[in-house]
Amino acid sequence: MSSLSSLSSSLSKPTVWHEFSPLASASGAVNLGQGFPNWDPPGFVKQALKDAVDVPGPAVNQYCRSQCHLPLATALADEYKARPSWSHLPIDPLTNIVSSVGCTQVMYCAFRSLLSPGDEVLLLEPAFDIYASQVKLCGGEPRFCSLTTDLSAPLTSNDVFKFDWEKLEAAITEKTRVLVLNTPHNPTGKMFSMPELSRIAEMVEAHPNLLVFSDEVYEHMVYDDASSPHISFATLPGMWDRTLTLSSAGKTFSTTGWKVGWGVGPEHIIKKMTDLQNWVCFSAPSVTQEAIARSLVRARQPYLEYSSFYAWLADDYRRKRAILTEHLASVGLTPISPQGGFFICADSSSITCPDSVYHEPSLSAPQPMPRDWALARHLTQTVKVAAIPPSPFYSPANVAEASHYLRFAFCKTDEELEEAGRRLREHLGAR
Amino acid sequence: MLILLFLLPLSSPLAAPSSPPGSPGGTVWTHFGGLVSSSPDPSLISNLGQGFPDSPPPAFVRNQLQKAMEEGAAPHQYTRSSGHPLLVKELASRYSQHLARDLDPLTSVAITVGASQALYLSLQSLISPGDEVVIFEPYFDLYLSQVKLAGGTPVFVPLDFTPFSDPSGRGGEWTMNPERLKAAVGPRTRCVILNSPHNPTGKVFTRGEMQDIADAISPFPRAVVLSDEVYKFIVHSPPALPPGAPAERVPGHTHFASLPGMYERTLTISSAGKTFSATGWQVGWAIGPESLIAPIQEMLPSVQFCASTLMQEAIAKALPLADEEYEDPASGKKYVSYYAWLLREYTEKRDFLVRALEGAGFRVPDYSKVAGGGFFIFAQVTDEITSEIPADVLGRECAAAPGGRAGEGWALCEYLLESKGVGLIPASPFFSTQSAANEQFVRVAFCKNRKVIEEAGRALLCTSGGGEEGEEEDSQCQALLESASLT
């Protein structure tokens, strides 16, 4: 069996999601594991889909433009151009926007169309586990550089998780074709600052073959605009031409199952991705793209008592962040408060995990089972609150860095968050 | 420095993965699509080129998405990577009947973004450098691009064209020559792509022809058949069944995977798009043994994590309803099922266009004698028609055309678009080599609403520029149209 088929066979291990979702379900746990909300999308988004299905003729129910359904490309171009930091950039809906089946497939098309065999892709750990497997499937080599952790700092993700600049500099070589940034960051909730991004931009300038893919799917879950605003790497001087900005509807509109994602970037990147997508699936579903196109426009209008849907969203998640933070702190799961996203990484050092859990059969755990994995299983099965172990977000060599953390999601109803708190206190005791 | 940035090393054919095939001048689709959209009034064009319907799906299908928007009525979040449970159960159940075996929904089914992605992932999972893929020609151009992208070597097996002069009356029929296929299959053959009903010819592979394919691959255990069956519910002219043969579950369609010994050797690929006029919903699937499906399932988390839960749930709910009695929204007439209505609808449209095309001088198959499926008529042009092509169009440079020049079929389609407002597609891009023979065919789609089809017929038949001769032509044209009118 030669390289292509063997690439796909190297993915035969189930992912952490395939283990913990069924486990949470079977245990009747409150699922603070997988990062999707447990409520319907907002009314205006659902209405947009109803309206989309009813559009007469072939415009919405038949194949759309392979690159991106044109109304969505137009809505996205308008949305990005309206952002002050983007306003100087030339965003043409016909050439600078591509859509695919969720951000994940946008990323796949980007790797598949832009990587040559043996190209390296640098991932900052902890990194969303799908990136590495995508790189390998597309013939590239993932390389890893960890964020540092400083628990003596104030317990917020921006303060605790930092860059080791020497290590990062050393990790970028002539073979590095892509650097993946993810801000707001999954799992930590860190948001990369202007000084941090500027430092990265210097490295990108120094390496002409390097592109940056910036995964910004949590861009609207931002809790302190003043001290920690969301910054798109593409907007830094000289970086537009080197950057693919990715985002999606799923997290923003609570539609992770609709799978509408997009990439914004210079024509030379977008064209390669489009040429590939032509042959991968021809185009992403048009109906959902139309619905999101309409939703993007509506989202900028006043919503409830807020200036926009996005303002309401950030405020609602900020409130939920406070609820979960308090519950975690109350049982000694020390939360590192995220500046963005809807995950909290908590320090689990003070919690003990029964020995027996380490020996339970597991579909996807590294062997021997890491501490965070065992603790997550214990919490899911016994405390009946599911969390995700961060070790899948690390390369095998660095799994130990995750051992004292657990990732909790707060994209859940207030009732679920309260119930989680109750169960945590019942089993772990108030501290 | 900027120039260096954009220079990528070219992938060697044996390195994996390959870069996507470039199309610097565009494709036949972008070229003719561009001509339509840049015409003075695109709404006046009767576009029988693009192979997708111009109307929305039936109400019972659309309703599933509408109802899904009610509070708590449907899942809006991620689903199982290999496929949404409700849909894989429904498909496993249906295919268990089609293939007369018990299929496990969890291991025999992979849900993809349309049949296109099922083909893409099948090839990605199967092909190693040096592997060959047999493609019958003419072919749907996507296949060639996907084979190259997977690093495979295409091996073309031309179908045989029965001339219209043939005394059997089966002129226009395309057949498969088993000897030619046998010569093309060998130890390096990894896939044979079977598309029945066939795009672009409308050919329906008979059970006998499929058995010949099975016989050809039997000695070569690595050879897998990719059976693209997206048009299977539109067999408007079924092949004659051998005497004593049981009635087929899907009229006129043989599932290759149901042939003796072939289930383990086949990936059956289909989708909702053509059946339900929902190509924009992009719900497709691959069905097969665990040994072939598992490698596809393994890739799905890395390619997209999962396909759209929303669209999968809607199709899963629509599928059982398609078996129920169906009422034509226009006439109120009742049909035993949606599938029965679909066949009737397409048959009427086919018949109308056949008369219009014949009246305009094209040669088309006699579907009372020739089997046919899908919604394309593969018409042969005659000297009568091609003599009308202006000299400055024929042979002119055209980057998107095969060979970089507008051959007869290509030029004819450009001319018909400009002069009569009728959009057809030349067949030359569906062949691997250029020849005068390939230039003689055009593909005419009848998956369009009745008004567009009538307009196209009118435009093709009625060429008068006025005057006495024009009046006579007009009346002949009217008579033809009346006799053929879609009632």
TrEMBL record, chain A:
Tell me the ranges covered by the Aminotransferase class I/classII large domain, including all copies: 30-423
Task: Tell me the leader sequence span.
Answer: none
Q: Which UniProt keywords apply?
A: Aminotransferase, Pyridoxal phosphate, Transferase
Record's protein name: Aminotransferase class I/classII large domain-containing protein
* Family matches, as InterPro entries: Aminotransferase_I/II_large (IPR004839), Kynurenine-oxoglutarate_AT (IPR051326), PyrdxlP-dep_Trfase (IPR015424), PyrdxlP-dep_Trfase_major (IPR015421), PyrdxlP-dep_Trfase_small (IPR015422)
Q: Which domain of life is it from?
A: Eukaryota
Give the taxonomic lineage as stored in the record. Eukaryota, Sar, Stramenopiles, Ochrophyta, Bolidophyceae
Cofactor needs: pyridoxal 5'-phosphate
Automatic annotation (TrEMBL), chain B:
* Entry keyword 4Fe-4S: no
The protein's superkingdom reads Eukaryota
Q: Which UniProt keywords apply?
A: Aminotransferase, Pyridoxal phosphate, Signal, Transferase
Aminotransferase class I/classII large domain span: 47-458
| Stretch forming the signal peptide | 1-17
**Which chain positions lie within coiled-coil regions?**
none
Cofactor names from the entry are: pyridoxal 5'-phosphate
Q: What InterPro entries is this protein classified in?
A: Aminotransferase_I/II_large, Kynurenine-oxoglutarate_AT, PyrdxlP-dep_Trfase, PyrdxlP-dep_Trfase_major, PyrdxlP-dep_Trfase_small
* Any matching Pfam family: Aminotran_1_2
PANTHER family xrefs: FI04487P (PTHR43807:SF20)
The protein here is known as Aminotransferase class I/classII large domain-containing protein
Organism whose genome encodes this protein: Tetraparma gracilis
**What is the taxonomic lineage of the source species?**
Eukaryota, Sar, Stramenopiles, Ochrophyta, Bolidophyceae
